[in-house]
Amino acid sequence: MLKFMVPDLFAQSIYVIDYEELKRRGVRGIIVDLDNTLVESTRPDATPRLVTWLDELRDMGFHVMIVSNNNRTRVAHFADPLGLPYIHAAKKPLLSAFRKALERMGTKREETVVIGDQLLTDVFGGNRMGLYTILVAPVSNIDGFLTRINRRVERFVFSLLKRKGHVQWERSNKGEST
C-alpha cells in the first residue's frame, strides 16, 4: 500500500514541471486538482499566470481536465470561464473519476499524468489507476476541514516514506517543501 503513496515526481509548483519532457514521453492528457494545486482554495478565479500556463499547455497539444473533490458550484465557477472540462465531487482517491477523465480526454493511462497537492487523494488515486503522478507543494496553507485531517495523515506517511528511502525531498508540517 505504501508504494501507492510515492509520487513519480515532486515539484514546487505546476509552473516548474518540464512539460516538454512529458510531451516527449508521449503524455497528451493532464488531470489536475483545483484547490491548492492551481490556486488557493479561497481564490474564486484563475490568476493571469495560470491563464498563461493553460494557454501554453493547450498550444503544446495537451488536454487538461480538472478533477476535484470540491462541489459543482466551486469547480464550475472556476473552470467554465477558462473553457476547462472538469469533474466535480470526484471522490478521489476512488478510481471512477480518473476513468471518466481518461475517457473524456480520449487518452490512455500511459499518456496521462495527474498533478495534485495531496498524497491521499491525487497521488494515491493516480497511482492506483496506473497514471504518472506529480505531487506539487500546496499553493496555500489554508485548507478545509477534511484536507487538514489528510495533511496530518500525510505527515505520518511522509515520515514512513522518508525512513524507507522512498523520497528524495523534504516536506514541512505546513505542507511546504524544502
UniProtKB/TrEMBL annotation:
CDD domains registered for this protein in UniProt: HAD_BsYqeG-like
GO CC entries: cytoplasm
Stretches of the chain forming a coiled coil according to its record: none
Pfam families: Hydrolase (PF00702)
Superkingdom as given in the UniProt entry: Bacteria
One GO molecular-function entry: phosphatidylglycerophosphatase activity
Annotated Gene3D superfamilies: HAD superfamily/HAD-like
UniProt-listed PANTHER family: 4-NITROPHENYLPHOSPHATASE-RELATED (PTHR19288), PHOSPHATIDYLGLYCEROPHOSPHATASE GEP4, MITOCHONDRIAL (PTHR19288:SF25)
Entry protein name: YqeG family HAD IIIA-type phosphatase
Higher taxonomy: Bacteria, Bacillati, Bacillota, Bacilli, Bacillales
